[in-house]
């Protein structure tokens, strides 16, 4: 298949591009720059110059492909709500170019939207449309497309990690470095699910090749690692104290991260593993955190 990949030069997207090529697919990668185009050409992909804010460029990319994998997202959390709305519009635009065909569209969401109530283990079967998290806009767009006959499915992500980046934990490390303390809230028993980037990328390829239209999949290798354990590893890595904060202290300490830091974001991938025979095998989150370069 010829696959149009957005976010093709990003952390996750570049790993997906490599795995697609290794699996024998052709890749048309969205990139904003000539440097990005050169990096794609170097690994055997083709480049499509454009941007997720340029909806016409997205439609053109879709028109040239047999399938679409959408991983691009603006992770500037100071404009998070606006970024989620932009993602909705991008998904709608790509979906509009797929009308009348069975070409698959795979979009990206977050695992936490599969929790029915706060603190519950998120599952693939559920979508919390009442969640206050504006990222739900992406899944609402996918539901709208599915109702109009588009072959769309969703991959939900937890914290995606290697020894360089770890999702929301990366800014948590930088905050700990800045503040001189690695902190968590209360007992730190709330948990975050995680997956190694190699396993996440491999799942996207499996979803492309074996998915059922309208399905949701969880790229979850570990159901949940406690924030206290994460903070302790960060503390050792930076050689700084580890401290528990109350909710009021946490709001001041964590800033925008406080929206996430006290929440339980654990999730299951039982149905995903059953449906696709996906078996995560990469390093676990704490191992990557232990072995990363902190200086």
Tell me about this structure.
There is one protein chain. The termini are far apart. The protein is 41% helix and 19% strand. The chain is of the alpha/beta class. The protein has a 7-stranded parallel sheet, sandwiched between helices. A 3-stranded mixed sheet has the order 7-9-11.
Secondary structure blueprint with pairings:
Blueprint: E1 2-6, H1 11-22, E2 26-31, H2 34-42, E3 46-49, H3 55-63, E4 67-70, H4 80-96, E5 105-110, H5 136-147, E6 152-157, E7 159-161, H6 169-179, E8 182-185, E9 191-196, H7 197-210, E10 216-218, E11 222-226, H8 227-238, E12 242-245, H9 247-254, H10 258-261, H11 270-276, H12 285-291
Parallel strand pairs: 1-2, 1-4, 2-3, 4-5, 5-6, 6-10, 7-9, 8-12
Antiparallel strand pairs: 9-11
Helix pairs in contact: 1-7, 3-4, 4-5, 6-8
Notable characteristics:
alpha/beta; seven-stranded parallel beta sheet; three-stranded mixed beta sheet; 12 helices; globular
Shape summary:
globular
User: How helix-rich are the residues, as a percent range?
Assistant: 40-55%
* Number of helical regions: 12
What distance lies between the first and last C-alpha atoms, to the nearest angstrom? 43 Å
Question: How many β-strand stretches?
Answer: 12
Give the C-alpha Rg.
19 Å
Strand content: 15-25%
Which structural class do you get from the secondary structure elements? alpha/beta
Task: List the secondary-structure elements in sequence, H or E.
Answer: EHEHEHEHEHEEHEEHEEHEHHHH
Biggest sheet overview: 7 strands, parallel
Which blocks of ≥5 consecutive residues have pLDDT under 50? none
Give the strand order, joined by hyphens, for the main sheet. Answer: 3-2-1-4-5-6-10
Mean of residue pLDDT? Answer: 96
